[in-house]
Write a structure and sequence with these properties.
- It contains 23 helices and 21 strands.
- The chain has 639 residues and is of the alpha+beta class.
- The protein folds into 4 domains: 197 residues, Triger factor/SurA peptide-binding fold (Orthogonal Bundle), CATH 1.10.4030; 142 residues, no CATH class; 106 residues, Chitinase A, domain 3; 107 residues, Chitinase A, domain 3.
- Strands 5, 17, 18, 19 and 20 form a 5-stranded antiparallel sheet that branches. Strands 6, 13, 14, 15 and 16 form a 5-stranded antiparallel sheet that branches. The chain has a 4-stranded antiparallel sheet with strand order 9-8-11-10.
- The longest helix is centred in the C-terminal third of the chain and has 33 residues.
- The N terminus is likely disordered.
């Protein structure tokens, strides 16, 4: 399935590049691009337009997580290598850039209204089922994304959706194509197989020192011991430091005046509504509309006569999101509801009820239960948030000051324990010593943070400490000991090298042996007889379909092995299959054709999948054409 899956993932990558709203892009590295083919911050350029390395790195991370979650323990280095995920991530970004470029050349545009509408339906920005501006800014802020950058990314994704729709508008699949796919995917086979293993441990003694030394010399990088460091570090949390911050009334006033726009409040209303929709299935739309208007007018009369608005909303409103709550919409500002609704709601005073309001959803009655006028918070009301902001700013300076003071004390310490003792005088500091660790040692807290890891491995013992600021606090990092990367002495790895050589020799001999046995079987000798004579075991896989992905009892990934599923009864797979150092000879023992009766319930799902694959194919060819007329460079050094 691998080749097939690779193709599907490659096309899935293209689909991802065309998605209307791509959360992977939105929340993992949206930002303006720079230029420069060999810039370490640039992974590729498309006609001179740079694709930032950050976008690539974050997208690769999400792709890797996807495969690990999909295949779980079956995902290994071999599969990752065959899938070539790093290259696929770069292709996503290049395809996206190509699509946007082509759409712009064809004169396609995305309006601000389209961007706004797309953002409003993203669930993560919603609160109680409706778009919430406060939530929107909160989510973007927590992901360190500026609204302008986010909206530019949404605009680009909408542009790719438009060009995608144009490219695919005439693509279709036939019923026969769907049926053929069903029978192909659900044909089950049972394979007889013989496994030939190499046993390298039996031949270790036959490997000479000279041979092992030569192997180590040629493959030195495989035995490289990574650089390791032992670091002292101390953490100063901003929360603890903020408690020490002091500021004057003058500082509070100055901050208020300098940042007054932060304390501007938007006009808002708290409202309920009753909605009556015209029957969408009515043959006479105008009649349905008139009936809906008549019904809402009758409800308005009940409200006017003193009927309880919330009870009437529960009884008559056709808004599934608010009817059960008595029509309660909560607080909302301008720009959240549709225009006609807002124009009716905001002029109302507290307690007032509107007349009949018509929108694209139907007819409404609106009751405003409370409202807030726009303006600026008074200084006394803004003071708590000002103090919090000032404390946050001063906390960073206090943390840095405390750590630099500590570094002066640590500089004269002779041991790691003395360094930790030097930090004990300040209860807000948390000192620690890592012990020797490598960059890949995720068991060490310092290694799990990229900024701290980079700082530690770029230093030398005796150098002044380095203060590294993170989101929650600052760290002082000072190196205690460093062991640079090196190739070990032969004596240290001799047994390992000899074992590897022995295993490789044994594996090669086993492969040669397996191929010889396969040739004998293909010439007419009975595989079972051959296996007994060679003291090998004949085994059965049991029935399995291509869609299962992995062959039972062997763990071999078979989705890309189409020839295996096209074998005739008694035929041998023409090549030996090597998996995890074992060599397999396969013969088809039995076939179970797909059950035709089970086709109909799966027809629509299969049709959608086949159509998606055709879309992938058409998009792939289209993108291939765009690549042919575009100058694309990839910065191989950063992959």
């Amino acid at each position: 399935m691998l080749e097939s899956f690779r193709k599907r993932r490659n096309s899935a990558v293209i689909v991802l590049a065309f998605a209307a709203i791509i959360i992977v892009f939105i929340f993992w590295g949206v930002g303006p691009s720079g230029n420069g083919d060999n810039d370490a911050n640039v992974v590729a350029t498309v006609d001179g337009q740079a694709i930032p390395y950050k976008e690539y790195a974050n997208l690769y991370k999400k792709e890797l997580e996807y495969y690990k979650e999909t295949f779980k323990e079956q995902f290994n280095d071999e599969m990752a290598r065959k899938l070539d995920l790093k290259r696929k991530a770069v292709d996503i970004l290049i395809n996206r850039a190509l699509a946007i470029k082509e759409a712009e050349e064809q004169g396609m545009k995305v309006t601000p209204e389209e961007v706004q509408a797309a953002i409003k339906v993203i669930p993560v920005f919603g609160k109680d089922g409706a778009f919430d501006k406060e939530m929107y800014f909160k989510v973007l802020s927590s992901n360190r994304i500026k609204p302008a950058e986010f909206e530019k990314s949404v605009e680009a994704d909408l542009m790719t959706a438009k060009i995608r729709e144009k490219v695919l508008k005439d693509v279709a699949v036939t019923d026969q194509e769907v049926k053929d796919r069903y029978f192909k995917e659900n044909r089950k086979i049972d394979l007889s197989f013989v496994v030939v293993d190499g046993d390298g441990s039996k031949n270790v003694a036959a490997v000479s020192d000279d041979e092992a030394k030569e192997y180590l010399k040629k493959n030195a990088s495989d035995f490289m011991v990574p650089a390791r460091v032992n670091a002292f570090y101390a953490y100063a949390g901003y929360e603890e430091m903020a408690a020490r911050a002091k500021f004057t009334e003058e500082e509070i006033k100055a901050y208020y005046e300098a940042n007054k726009n932060r304390f501007e409040t938007q006009a808002a209303v708290k409202a309920r509504h009753i909605l009556v929709r015209p029957d969408p299935n009515a043959v006479d739309a105008e009649k349905a509309k008139a009936e809906a208007r008549e019904k809402i007018t009758g409800i308005l009369a009940k409200v006017t006569k003193g009927g309880k608005f919330a009870d009437l909303a529960k009884a008559f409103s056709q808004d599934p999101g608010s009817a059960r709550q008595g029509g309660d919409l909560g607080w909302f500002q301008k720009g959240v509801m549709i225009k006609a609704f807002e124009e009716a709601a905001f002029p109302l005073n507290k307690g007032e009820v509107s007349g009949v309001v018509e929108t694209e959803f139907g007819f409404h009655i609106i009751k405003v239960e409370d409202k807030k006028e726009g303006g600026y918070l008074a200084l006394k009301d803004a003071e708590p948030s000002i103090k919090q902001a000032l404390a946050g700013d001063k906390a960073k300076a206090l943390a840095r000051e405390a750590l630099m003071t500590l570094d002066a004390k640590v500089a004269v310490a002779k041991t790691a324990e003395e360094m930790k003792k030097a930090a004990s005088g300040d209860k807000a500091l948390r000192p620690s010593v890592t012990g020797l660790f490598s960059e890949d040692d995720m068991g060490v807290a310092l290694a799990r943070n990229e900024q701290l890891r980079v700082a530690a491995f770029s230093m030398q013992p005796g150098q002044a400490g380095r203060v590294v600021e993170t989101e929650d606090g600052a760290y002082l990092v000072r190196l205690v000991e460093r062991k640079d990367a090196h190739v070990p002495e032969f004596a240290e790895v001799a047994s390992d090298v000899k074992a590897i050589i022995a295993d490789e020799k044994a594996a090669k001999e086993a492969e040669v042996r397996a191929k010889a046995l396969l040739e004998r079987a293909k010439k007419g000798e009975d595989l079972a007889v051959i296996a007994r004579a060679e003291k090998l075991k004949m085994e059965q896989s049991g029935f399995f379909a291509r869609t299962e992905g992995f062959m039972p009892r062997t763990g071999i990934f078979v989705g890309d092995r189409e020839a295996m599923f096209n074998l005739s009864a008694g035929a041998y797979l023409p090549e030996v299959v090597t998996h995890n150092g074992r060599h397999y000879i396969f013969r088809l023992s039995g076939v179970k054709e797909a059950d035709e009766a089970a086709f109909e319930p799966r027809r629509e799902e299969l049709k959608a999948r086949v159509l998606a694959e055709k879309h992938d194919q058409v998009l792939g060819e289209w993108l291939k054409g765009l690549r042919g007329k575009t100058k694309i460079t990839i910065n191989e050094a950063v992959l």
